[in-house]
Amino acid sequence: MRDRLHTHRLQSLTRGVTTVQDPEEAPEVRSSDPDDDYLIALASNTHSVLVSGDADLLELAGQIPVRTSAEFLAMIEFPDPDGI
Question: Per-domain residue ranges for the chain?
Answer without folding.
Answer: 2-16+30-75
